Amino acid sequence: MAKLLVYDSYNNKFYKYTLNENDPMPYSYGTTLSMREFRGSSGANVLWTTTAAMEAWNLTRRTYGGAIPVGYAFKRIWEGGHGTASQHYAGVSFDVGQGTNNAIRRKIYNAALRSGAWGYVEPLSMTPTWVHIDRRYGTPACAGSTAGYPTLRRGRRSTYVLILQDALNALGYSTGTLDGVFGARTESALKACQRRFGLTADGICGCASWKKITSAVLGIGRTSTVIDR
C-alpha cells in the first residue's frame, strides 16, 4: 500500500488516499489507470499527482478509445531516471506506448493532441519509441523556457512544493513534513540550503535555487533524511 496526494488546483487543496497497487487512480476514468501503472518503477511509499493530470488522462483515454500502455509515470527526484526539470517528479507526466508499433504510438499521440488537455505533448521525432505527455502548470521560474518548475514562496501549495520539500529533506534540510504546503519549516529549510549553495537566502525558490537544488539531489537515492509523512 502507498499514500497518494492529489492536488486540486480548483480549490487549492490536497486530498489524501491510501491505495493498494491494483486500485484505480482517483479521478481516473473507470479502471483505465491503476496505482501500479502510475507508480511504474518508483519504489516510493508516498506519491502525488493532480486532478488536472487525471482529467487529461481521462480525455485522452476516451479520445483514443482503448487501453494505453504506461511505461513511466511517477518518480521522486532522488530516485532519478529523468532530467533535473522533469514533470515526472511533479506527478503530472506520462511516457506511454512503449512496446507498441509506430502506428499505435501515432494514434495515441494524435489522441493526446486532440484532447487539448495536456500542457505539453512531445513531438514524436523526440520520442521514437514512446509518447510523452504532461500536464505541467505554472510559469517556469527560469525565463525563456516552457519547461522547469515555477517560482515558489511561502504560502504556495502544489506538487512542485512537494518536489522542493522532498529534495530539501533528501539533502538534509528538514521541512518537517511532506505535504505540498510551503510553510515556515519549508522556508527555513530552503534558506539554509540557499546559504550552503552561496545563493541569496531569501526563502524563495526561483531559477537559481531550482538549478542548484535539483542538480544536487537528482538520483542520489533515498537518504536517511528522506521523510514520507
What does this structure look like?
This protein is α+β, with helices and mostly antiparallel strands. The chain folds into 2 domains: 2-134, Muramoyl-pentapeptide Carboxypeptidase, domain 2; 140-229, PGBD-like superfamily/PGBD (Muramoyl-pentapeptide Carboxypeptidase, domain 1, Orthogonal Bundle), CATH 1.10.101. It is built from 6 helices and 7 strands; from the N terminus they run ββαβαββαββααα. It has a 4-stranded antiparallel β-sheet with strand order 4-5-7-6. Strands 2-1-3 form a 3-stranded mixed β-sheet. The radius of gyration is 17 Å and the shape is globular. The relative contact order is 0.14.
Layout of strands and helices, then pairs:
Blueprint: E1 2-8, E2 13-19, H1 35-39, E3 46-50, H2 51-64, E4 70-72, E5 93-96, H3 102-115, E6 120-121, E7 131-134, H4 159-170, H5 184-196, H6 207-217
Parallel strand pairs: 1-3
Antiparallel strand pairs: 1-2, 4-5, 5-7, 6-7
